[in-house]
Design brief:
single chain; mainly alpha; 65% helix
Length: 426
């Protein structure tokens, strides 16, 4: 009953968080109800529950489509939790939760919730943030440089807080300004199948994670720019599965329907070049399952339900997709309990993703080998509380885990050496 009560409570918190953050209407009453719910909940179990709430907010902010006032709403919530966060979580705890989310991490640093010391500066460098968080990295090494009155710094600050590619073509695409887009690409002789140049200010997770540059139609699909998408298709720009996945991030079901209609045309007209032949590598079920996973991870829950009911003909999330639900903290699709599930598999996920409550609940029945693997994963992820929890098990072979942990420590030392050899005049 304890675990069911926790899931029920977290589902309610998630649903109110999701409704407030992801609704374009800025409702003061919704915010007030949400904060009351959060404060009441934190009275019972402050640190572990708060950690889970920050994980949810972090994951939504890093994956969900950005509506107007998106970050303003997130920051409003976090301001109400600021004192609780500083009292209950260590500097390292907080940093490890938000470190992969450049835009949210910036806010935590600005609010002095995360203090950039020498060790964090090193990790920021490892993460490749030496442009976006250059000043903060330098401050961690006690470099006292006042840029606040510098005009160029102020412009830089505005761009990184916006967190989007600053180029004009990207601005036109995001705004779905078709006439201006056509004029711009014609005037500058830009190929419609060309690539979008990378930007140090880009904080959208998918673009940050990709090793290669995305093309124009993928960028338009990501931002839900349906007029520009239709124009590109009319000019013969092809669609492929990757563009389908980008479209999930728009949270726009109409774009998904448009792409689906083009895929159907391919089956009717063999010479149709609108949809890339790469679709032939996948069957429909594989395509729709890929889209479903992406929608789960984006917290685009209406789109998840649309894909399940229209393409997969399922009414509930299949157990095969449970790992994606757990890893993205998407409580909309959490089961009410874990009876009948593969407890060893979900225990590993809980440890990796820093779910202290569930990890503790399943710990006593987890075998030693799974605990050892989970320990190494938790050290790698920086999940301090999970590591402490796992070390309470007397049957863990510390020597087994020690070699793997030692490798991780040596990697940190390598980056430390490299870091000192590189100039900070970026």
């Amino acid at each position: 009953m304890e675990i069911q009560a926790h899931i029920k409570e977290m589902k309610e918190i998630y649903n109110k968080l999701h409704k407030y953050i992801c609704n374009e209407v800025n409702s003061e009453s919704q915010l007030k109800d949400l904060i009351k719910l959060l404060k009441d909940s934190l009275k019972k179990d402050n640190s572990n529950k708060l950690r889970e709430i920050i994980h949810i907010i972090n994951d939504i902010s890093d994956n969900h489509h950005r509506i107007p006032n998106f970050f303003d709403k997130i920051e409003q919530i976090l301001l109400h939790l600021k004192d609780d966060i500083k009292k209950s979580l260590s500097n390292l705890n907080i940093f490890n939760i938000v470190k992969e989310n450049k835009r949210l991490l910036l806010w935590f640093i600005e609010q002095k919730i995360v203090i950039v010391d020498k060790s964090i500066s090193i990790e920021l460098f490892q993460l490749g943030y030496y442009d976006y968080l250059n000043f903060e990295i330098q401050s961690g090494f006690n470099s006292k440089i006042d840029h606040t009155k510098d005009h160029e710094y102020q412009e830089f600050e505005q761009k990184r807080r916006k967190g989007e590619n600053e180029s004009l073509i990207c601005q036109l695409i995001r705004d779905d300004s078709l006439e201006e887009f056509i004029s711009f690409v014609e005037k500058n002789n830009i190929c419609l199948t060309g690539q979008i140049k990378r930007s140090i200010f880009e904080t959208n997770k998918l673009f940050k994670d990709l090793w290669c540059e995305q093309n124009i139609i993928q960028y338009a699909a990501y931002h839900g720019s349906i007029k520009i998408i239709k124009y590109l298709i009319s000019k013969g720009v092809s669609l492929d599965l990757e563009t389908y996945l980008f479209a999930i991030h728009s949270n726009n079901i109409e774009i998904l329907k448009l792409f689906e209609s083009k895929k159907d045309e391919l089956s009717k007209e063999e010479d149709d070049l609108i949809v890339s032949s790469c679709f032939s590598k996948y069957n429909d079920k594989e395509i729709y399952e890929s889209l479903l996973i992406e929608a789960i991870q984006c917290h685009h829950n209406d789109m998840v339900n649309f894909i399940m009911s229209n393409y997969l003909k399922d009414k509930v999330i299949n157990r095969l997709f449970l790992s994606y639900v757990l890893e993205s903290y998407n409580y909309e699709f959490f089961p009410d309990n874990f009876i009948g599930f593969d407890n060893e598999k979900i225990f590993s996920i809980f440890c990796k993703k820093d779910y202290v409550f569930y990890s503790n609940y399943l710990l006593k029945n987890a075998n030693a080998e799974i605990c050892q693997i989970a320990l190494c994963q938790s050290v790698s992820e920086g999940n301090v509380e999970i590591v402490r929890l796992l070390l309470t098990r007397q049957d863990i072979d510390v020597n087994f885990s020690y070699e793997t942990i030692l490798i991780l420590v040596l990697m940190k030392m390598f980056y430390l050496t490299l870091f000192h050899e590189i100039s900070f005049n970026l």
